[in-house]
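Structure, all two chains, one model.
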Amino acid sequence: MQIDTGESYHIKGRSMALEEWELTVQVENLVDFKSLAHHGCELRNYYQTQDLDDYFFMLNGPSYENLVKHFWVRAEVFDSHAARVEEHEKVLIDPTLGGKTREELGLKLFTCTEIRSSVMGILVSITEEAIAKTIRRTTKGSFEEGLDSKSSPWNDVVNMTMFNSTKKEKYYDLKMEYKLLLKIMNENLLPKDGGGDQPSLEHRVFLHFFIT
Amino acid sequence: MSEIFHEGGILKAVKQSKIIIDAQLGTMTGKIINGRTLIKMQLIKKKEFKELNIDLKESYVVCNLMDDFPPICRQDPQEIRAHFVYEHWERTRETIKYDEIPETMYGGVLPIARKRKSKKKATSEAVDIEEASEPKKKKAKKAKNVHQEQATGSDVPSIEEEVSDLEPAKILDKRTRSGKTVGSSQSLPPQSTISKKKRKPSIRKMKVSTYVEEEDAQIEAATDLVSREVKRKKVADAAALQKVLEIAKNIKVPAEMLMKESCGEQAQKVVELAENLQQLVVAGELLSAAEETHKEDVTCSEDVALEATRGNSESHNISNVIEIESSSTSTSVPTSSDIDNIPLNRVYATLHKSLSPSSSTKHQKKPDGDRYVPMYPSVLNRIADLIQMRIDVCNKLPANHPMQPPMIETL
């Protein structure tokens, strides 16, 4: 995360129609692996293999709900497309600047996608690297999007992992450990409000990687 | 996100501004997934659940917005918490509310409590004596603290109020976190309380330095001879005075000896002044009589003449008196027996008056008999002549003439 301290005070307008009090902040839950293990639910190994020990250790602390709301109401994604739009605006104002680099246009270098916002007048930009550093993980990983829950071959794989069957079973048929893994995933890793007993294919795939 | 803000330094920047507190930041902690969650999810029965001492609890320990945050948690014994809170207040003058104390320490360990234990064991008797003497000071500060809280009138209950009720100084001497008694504090013999005696107001004696004493001695030695001589002289004078008084008592001094030789001359001057004054008085009377002659009739003028003659006779009497007196003063011839007949105080009074004549002194009293020439007869004769002349003139005038005096008919 980069904090721009060059400017003394920066007032940034809201980037969404929602007000701060209309947002609901979902705070990550602490996981007491010892207590769970004592009651026959050993989950630590699943997360150790994924190198998420430090992440769960980090969760045991305060969260600043109002700051988070303040941040997200003013947040905007600054990706490659936004960078190009920014350059184009500069050229429209002054056509003589056409064909020049961002530095020559007086703009910062674009290295990666950022989430830009302002907290208490301080400019904040969050990058993928900053998030990885915060959760004590590397930026490496794979993600597959656009899965079709009906025709995707991942259905059989996931069902085999979760229910030990190619058929899709109900939540009730899940093991205690898997139920808890699903809950922790919904609370901390892929935060989701509402019921968690009917996960999507993406969530099930995600859980499959944890189990296996 | 909160961790990102923390790591990125935003919380530090907010802390430096000293405007926003934790409540405004919306500080909170998430729920805990533990054995109770399994019960809620109906994965285990309630009977099977067992709460462990090492179970995680919600914590605010990582909060960096508080300066000098005490390393305590609610798991600590009450007396230790109270001591920490009180110590924190003494050091920073900031109160710690009960809500600000975390439930558990980060990681579930209480390192500070262990440290305090070891410190207690290592304390020597001397240190314990010092600690034993501390509660007196603390009580005084507590009183101040209570006053401050009353002044602010805060409704929020704070740990500090509990501290005042607990009296940590007493409790700490008895128990530690583990409930064991502290040997050092108990082994101490009960200290005898020093009874305060009221100071009696005593007069402070000033110390005289040595050089001042030496200087005084030198001065005394130097003045010793002088003082002796003066004393001798005084004694001699006193003896002489005594002798003179004895002699004076034995000697009978006549009254005329008390008079000075210059008294005669001064008396002469006084007589002369009296004569001048007398002349002025007579002139004044003459003028007034002349004015009256224009207004009064013949009979009145006769009365005036009679009065004038009466005044003349009186003045003769006075002059006689003065003559007698002057004869007694001016002439130093008379015998001493005549003077001795006059009381001494009267003689001295006349003498004194003559010496210092005041403005009210009557000079007629002491005319000189030899030089005195009375003028009354000639003046009166002259007045009588004038009256006669007027009567003669009036007789020649007609009866209705305005210059005729008014006739007063008898009743």
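The mean pLDDT of chain B is 63.
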